[in-house]
What does this fold into?
Amino acid sequence: MYEPDRWYELGLLRSPGWVRLALEMRAGWEYGASLAVTPLLSLAPRGDGHPVLVFPGLITGDFSTLPLRNYLRSRGYATYPWGLGINRGPREGVVDACFALLDKLSDEHGRAVSLIGWSLGGIYARELAKARPASVRQVITMGTPFTGHPKATNAWRIYEWATGHKIGAPDLHEPLRSPPPVPTTSIFSRSDGVVAWQCSLECESPQTDNIEVQASHLGMGLNPLTLYAIADRLSQAEGDWRPFDRSGFRSYLYPDPRRQASF
It folds into this structure.
């Protein structure tokens, strides 16, 4: 029988197979699609100018999040990169620098900061929000593996190489499962070729939500469906967060994430 406190000993999930991994090549097409539907993306709700801090994924840097930040800037947000070079994991000084940046942005704007993280970057966003909930307005992650088995990805060996940390220690991974004490949205894709999508499912609560998109892992932050969903989430009035509305035309673009899983 599965025991939640022994998740790290059980291979309940497998990393995405070779077919899904090969489909990661569509990331460039997703960016092209976003450019093609720019007029439609401009119909997304405008923001209130609050600061948004964006964290890149593993072994990527701020260049990868530039299209997302530019789009959010066009919707009226004060967007910021993490500014710490290539994301090679929580190396010495990196976490402290992230806290310093969050504190700086919150103080300068006099407002709470929304945090967005792509893949590993989402772990930064979630953990910063847990430690500084008063400074964080909401958290949005894209393809972030915060639950399930830590080796249910096609990137765990790259993670160990890049960070020097071994995957699988329960004292390291178990705390990542709990959501931040602020509104939190996880955007995921069942066709993710890097992370088993089940590892990105947030437990349901009054201030958590899961949004499913048709996207690759490498192209998720460039995908037009992701961009629109993020703009929608950020546009909510502070203190009046609600789950994503999938009614009407959105039901054709954003499937019900609670539908029966196909493993």
